[in-house]
């Protein structure tokens, strides 16, 4: 179609780390949590400069680089807030780059096919992104062997507003509707059509919920995060829960090989349950046969060992988490528990200063020390 | 007065604590509910009658509490004390102290001892039959790799979860060293650990919206059964919001369990069949604690902001006691004629 290539003006992005966001409000929250946060007391400031001054005045320490920023964007001289303050050359480069990125990214995408192999009948090169844009396959899980229990949750995908072209610009690539959905995965992060992982610099995570609507292909509704591997029985929300979630298959195949945490393991979709379930009924699921072949963890790589590498900072899309969506941890302080942090608040300081204060101080000092030593997240 | 309709969050207990609720427990002998709070109090309620029966004030926020029997209980406080609470006389005395806030307390009927875990990185065992005073009651102190975050007991086994994702499994009959030293299979900070009522393993939850189901038996066959699942997450605006899973409570009869998270939801799961059985409607704020009554007919839910986002205005802290319907907690076995044992 003759859709014009759109700039990422429809999506905002962070100057410091090049990540993209749906709207500026979320971008600002991200900046405050990742770039403008004091590493000592975790107070979120409103700008990088403000954070630096705070650290200097309150903690007597000099901060010279913006935390969690890419090497060329670490300078503290630039005043950024949301999308404001981005130097014009960087702005232009970002958009220009996004166009070049696409083709190369397409080629680079690599989908571990092992686990998917058996599952996707006939779809060519499961998820192997074709060198040309035009043959994107709606394959889920870039880089993730997401074997979701329900191979085909097409039902789960509502049709997003058509007016949202991928910001990536693939002009209405019309995807050949993949054979039986070819999704072996119901990715937790619906990767729609295997798009070249994301525009520009965002990490491989596909973030975009919107996609071009392949003719005849159901569109994924980004929201549903999947098909709870823990299918809801007893349907408190679901009227007719059936087909895909065939329990027997799930339990038996789940975790055949990797113990503990199977990547992309059972995902109990909690909050948005209702919306998801509603969707399930929408489509009849052609993927019947896929269900059984859905072998979880049969392949070696179901996302890597569950115990092992220290936790990666959740907000970065990493290989351990099929993060097509950005993952935002409500509690991301590995060094302290919620109760410890709460205890350090003034209102809980006991008047008996001797024991209480010293233990609180000790706890705070310990946290500071640990966070410095451990580099903040590696446990 | 029992509102049983599913949409209702349950009956709200009157006279709740004036600050956050750290834990709540049903008694093994009646429908009495013991509630510990950040307002430095421990309160005893009669949940069926919706009445406050007793209140004890400590020197600092109380982080945990448990029953001994229907006439007494214990508490763990941030003022470093471990206290015994006598309900009939409303008196309390200090059983002993740690060197830092005491985070968890559990009473073992099997061993006749009280076990406490603290941020001072130790576990202590106490014999509550003695007179008070640390020298008389302290049975032993067991160093842990890190600050203790959660404890759970079943039979003769004790599971201790600490900061740094360590998990120690002890046999109460021989505390000189852990029976197993493990690491949480979840990659993020541990939030809560609870043993299965059947004693074969434990469930462990983290701050990253995930629960791991583990087994004590280290044989291949048993270890193959372990798994983890994601829960208490919400997807919106292109990103996944992942909430800590603060509480786990097992149903005493069916062995299914409920989890409560900072998202304000309580989910009930069938661990054997790997299914979610039910999700209660959203509570006003984070779920800080859960407890099933001894017959499994009541579920107490502490809807109390847990400061995951710092000090900010929040919904009032409340305790809801809801009647549990069988359909919400009973496992639905697959097609076999006999449900898996």
UniProtKB/TrEMBL annotation, chain B:
GO terms for cellular component: kinetochore; nucleus; phragmoplast; spindle. It is found in: Chromosome, Centromere, Kinetochore; Cytoplasm, Cytoskeleton, Phragmoplast; Cytoplasm, Cytoskeleton, Spindle; Nucleus. The keyword Lipoprotein does not apply. It comes from the Eukaryota. The keyword Ribonucleoprotein does not apply. WD repeats lie at residues 95-127, 245-279. Keywords: Cell cycle, Cell division, Centromere, Chromosome, Chromosome partition, Kinetochore, Meiosis, Mitosis, Nucleus, Repeat, WD repeat. Its main location: nucleus. GO terms for biological process: cell division; chromosome segregation; meiotic cell cycle. Pfam families: WD40. Residues 1-20 are annotated as: Disordered. Belongs to the WD repeat BUB3 family. This is Mitotic checkpoint protein BUB3.1. It comes from Carya illinoinensis.
